[in-house]
């Protein structure tokens, strides 16, 4: 005997079920239709029968969290980047002052950066040793044989974007080829930022700062799938930034949204405009790509000693030109990914509405590094490069540091060659590996735009360097062209180019050439810190973002009356002459549907019998909208609500006991709640994409 199900889970009392609802549905415990061999959750679990009492409806509950809002003394935002990371903070009593983290030891010649490399070093015993420049420099100074025992990781954030089946047990590969748990590495990194920030806050305030005084904000790419966003939250819990019981202490912010929040504050002197029609700071658009941005970077360099940025409590001049309903694109181009987000302005407060779901891909500046690696493979052989990375990992890091500094010198109008120093161990190891010199390899290769310099350098022509950028930049421009074809994006007023890769003159020129006649192109002066500063502002006022697009379709499984010809035969359940369709996906919200921050979707269900002790409601998600059954391809279970129904006498419970199920959307995390109306008992759960 199989018991029928509505929302899938198990029955605490194992009673035979009889369910009724307002739609005059009657559902009884039923035997599996003998003609079907189809295995569904409904048949295999012997679950509790629950059926809808009401259609889904939206409750605008944007102010529901107002009473729960904690007060924090300071907001600390962490920009956990693929290539570099950093933090900034603001005291809630002085929200107009944003302080960027103090300078750390280390640095690279030719690279000006207020952040630190996203590199981490573990001891041979797998204990945390150091992060950033300190990790890289210590690793570099180790004896090559000793270095093989240490676990050095860099650019590991991309693993969260590229792993399709991300779980809490996903591994990362260290430079020496050994595996380590990704969750452990991300937690170590966040714990390091936490300790650095709390120490700096304590030093500045002259008194010890407790973690409970801090609201934390961590930025993630908007195009990350839900499991990756949840993974970052779990790592933050493990690092002690917040806890599941006090989840409000941590906000996961989307990078382009943070950038958008900061851009609304920009004054004319804080940005460069690339659009050909405008003249800014005495430069026309054609001049601005090179000269104007160089002037801005020089201004930033001169002011590097000041780590405090004043954010005026006004709307910037550019933003004040926007009217109700105006649209703009934020292109967040970082080390690993490029995020494209379309926002619309909502007056009078100037709140932001996500108009078109975030798109993009792995088109960050790392793509240029990969092209350089491919070029090295072409010259010296893939077998050698792979062996060199394993046998001389610290020297490989040195080589990529040298390339990074030359990469940043690439420009459309550059005429003189770029020299990249080869580490001595590269030259030495190649001779041992191949039996001839690096110079010989360059002569024999068909790569005529890279020459050997007697000073021990690869000499690349500007065209050769520009060619390394081309595949990545072409991907960004192609993605933007596709975006501009969408009807929602046709009348965009501004394009804000932000993120570390936005500093590249080659990218600026490509965006200007392709879209300068369609909209005004704006680059904040300190473009690499735009997201960090915007994340602080978001932490101070999370209500700035009002409407997002749901990335997924969400629902639960229910029973419907079986309709011949409409429902598939394998879904048929028969008992006492009643015919039921199992596994029906009862939709709460659709993918790409606009959802206001704090919005609740409410649905009412009724359990089988008053004597039932437990109900379990399982939540499902799918990337597409066209979902009929919870067994459809791509539908995944992502949450379970287990509600205890004991504690009320049978006389006090109505014949049709109402169980309200609420889903709260709009925040980066999604929360589900089930409430027994008769007893006011409730249970909450965060939607979970990593453990099902």
Automatic annotation (TrEMBL):
Give the species this sequence originates from: Heterocephalus glaber
Is ATP-binding a UniProt keyword of this protein? yes
Molecular function in Gene Ontology = ATP binding
Report the locations given in the UniProt record.
Cytoplasm; Nucleus
Question: Gene3D superfamilies per the record?
Answer: 3.30.420.40
User: Does Transcription regulation count among this protein's keywords?
Assistant: no
Matches recorded under SUPFAM superfamilies: Actin-like ATPase domain (SSF53067)
Main location per UniProt? cytoplasm
Q: Which family does it belong to?
A: Belongs to the heat shock protein 70 family.
Q: What is the lineage of its organism?
A: Eukaryota, Metazoa, Chordata, Craniata, Vertebrata
Quaternary structure and partners = Interacts with SORL1 (via cytosolic C-terminus); this interaction affects SORL1 internalization and subcellular localization.
The superkingdom of the source organism is Eukaryota
Q: Which UniProt keywords apply?
A: Acetylation, ATP-binding, Cytoplasm, Nucleotide-binding, Nucleus, Stress response
The protein depicted here goes by the name Heat shock 70 kDa protein 12A
Q: Which GO CC annotations does the UniProt entry carry?
A: cytoplasm; nucleus
What does the function comment of this entry state? Answer: Adapter protein for SORL1, but not SORT1. Delays SORL1 internalization and affects SORL1 subcellular localization.
